[in-house]
Design brief:
Keywords: Signal. The protein is mainly beta. The chain contains three helices and 30 strands. The protein has three domains: 109 residues, no CATH class; 91 residues, no CATH class; 93 residues, no CATH class. Bound molecules: 2-acetamido-2-deoxy-beta-D-glucopyranose.
Length: 357
């Protein structure tokens, strides 16, 4: 190595710049995302990107930073959000341009609430589509797939959630004292489940089902918008939140064996609730529905009518022929919670109908 006599000063500079010289080989930092031979794009969103994202804009005032994204084979993503100075509670969030965000992981006080990171997204695939590679979530095309770590720093700034007197609050980790949404709701009767009652939505079901163990509300977060702090359940904004124990029969007038909660069937225009009555569908013709909600089902309609899914947190979704199946499936954040999904979109208090415009 006699040819490699380097001026120590230059060596220092070289080390500092982490460049590769003939004698000193310093490994370049891995790129991020490092998805190797996966052909689908992964973008990392910054705060500006979130503010410009139609479905994710409500998170635009929260602190955002990059997750570490790796893929070893078959586009199986391994996603890690690390704590940043001053923020020990946060979410890993998937954004897209054709729908609201999907929450992938939750960390409270530096601890993942479900399994340890890195996290992967179940039911996510990179498929060829019209000559390009595209991401699909539950078989639905995800446009402009993007990821970000988003802080959950304001949970104690939202109004306190009150109990109806029969509903218990149990901390999920008593050593966590700076997170006001990290609780279980419990009901004395184990046929009942805790619902979040609000003044602007139907009662919200956590997706945890009934039982003595109580319900965890991993989708509940306090979001800051300007000077305002508001509770959200996933992307649904809630006003004046309190917790009440009840049954689906008492709340929605129908029983359901599905942990996801009710999926109502709309047979006539009068069945449409106030939050369904948007756009052209509020006056459309309603066809005969002969389908029944199940863990996986399709809405089949008579000729001339199209399946449409209404929900409290989205505009009406026309169910495409390419992705007809509606599912009650695992919440990507934690599989002790269940969610309704149609066309890759999470639904809160859904209802389905056959409609003709
Ligand atoms: C979380 O981790 C960060 C970085 O490792 C550390 O600075 C912070 O003190 C931790 N916070 C808690 C609440 O443990």
């Amino acid at each position: 190595m006699s040819s490699c006599r380097v001026n120590p000063f230059l060596l220092l500079i070289s080390l500092f710049l982490q460049t590769v010289s003939g004698c000193l080989v310093v490994r370049e930092k891995d790129p991020n995302p490092n998805i190797q031979n996966c052909n689908c794009n992964v973008k990392l969103f910054n705060q500006e990107d979130i503010r410009n994202n139609e479905g994710g804009r409500y998170l635009g005032d929260l602190q955002v930073w990059d997750p570490i994204v790796e893929s070893k084979q078959d586009c199986w993503l391994a996603i890690t959000c690390k704590p940043v100075p001053g923020v020990s509670s946060f979410f890993t969030v998937m954004f897209r341009s054709n729908g609201p965000p999907i929450y992938i992981n939750r960390v409270v006080s530096n601890q993942s609430t479900f399994v340890e990171q890195p996290r992967s997204i179940g039911n996510l695939k990179c498929n060829e589509h019209n000559g390009e590679h595209q991401w699909f979530f539950h078989d639905a095309l995800i446009q402009d797939f993007s990821l970000a770590c988003v802080a959950d720093s304001y949970s104690c700034d939202c109004p306190r959630i009150l109990s109806d007197g029969r509903t218990g609050f149990e901390s999920r980790n008593p050593s966590v004292t700076n997170q006001c949404d990290f609780f279980k709701g419990t009901c004395m009767q184990n046929t009942e489940i805790p619902f979040l009652h609000t003044t602007n939505t139907n009662p919200v079901n956590s997706g945890a089902g009934a039982g003595a163990l109580g319900s965890e509300f991993d989708d509940l977060r306090c979001v800051k918008t300007g000077d305002e702090f508001s509770w959200y359940f996933a992307n649904l904004k809630l006003q004046d939140v309190s917790m009440h124990c009840g049954t689906n029969t008492a709340v929605f007038g129908e029983e359901t064996y599905l942990t996801c909660g009710v999926f109502q069937v709309i047979n006539k225009l009068e069945d449409l609730k106030w939050y369904h009555q948007v756009g052209a569908y509020s006056t459309a013709q309603v066809g005969i529905s002969s389908w029944t909600p199940a863990f996986e089902f399709e809405i089949t309609c008579e000729d001339g009518f199209k399946p449409v899914v209404f929900s409290e947190n989205n505009p009406p979704i026309e169910i495409p022929d390419s992705v007809p199946t509606i599912k009650c499936t695992y919440n990507p954040m934690a599989n002790y919670l269940m969610v309704w999904i149609a066309n890759g979109i999470r639904l809160i208090t859904p209802a389905g109908a056959c409609m003709k415009l």
